[in-house]
Amino acid sequence: EAGVAQSPRYKIIEKRQSVAFWCNPISGHATLYWYQQILGQGPKLLIQFQNNGVVDDSQLPKDRFSAERLKGVDSTLKIQPAKLEDSAVYLCASSPLGQLVSYNEQFFGPGTRLTVL
Amino acid sequence: AQSVTQPDIHITVSEGASLELRCNYSYGATPYLFWYVQSPGQGLQLLLKYFSGDTLVQGIKGFEAEFKRSQSSFNLRKPSVHWSDAAEYFCAVGVRGSQGNLIFGKGTKLSVKP
To answer: Is the distance from CB of B19 to CB of B87 less than 8 angstroms?
Structure first.
């Protein structure tokens, strides 16, 4: 079974530029997550999708970050304009269809390392 | 608010020695608890998880963890460390009813001496 795919693996941009990351979850996984992992810290959830609907985007800086999952499969995360503090690894994860009374394992992709100069 | 504390930023152990990585959580109810491992340039891989029942859980690669409610802890252990275990380890709390949100600790980097 193929894992979670992410691209690009590395990206270097200058501040105020825009950037987009792509994620393709494991086939059949309805739930998709984007995390931000700053150096020396654990991952922090940015946004969670269930199919093509947003479940939680409370920690997404909506003035500059946006994400979509139009067909309920792959997803893109965009930053516009980027700031120096956005330098981090952006991880995508997916899990099978969730139920309110259960908890499903999240499977992580390799991440995209963003450097903002 | 829920939080996870991993008090050790960096631990070095000799190959073949035993290992214990500490994790304390703050949560108002019984949490879902996880340990993940991250090798350089890789995503996170689940080592083990605790949902309910037996408080000693077994995971992959010879790891185990024990949930201690009285201490709000979920420490990770391995009786004999291999050089390939060198990586960063993250403890995480899953919030019940959140449909999957994980709150991670800051991680413990494990180095293994030959």
So the answer is: no
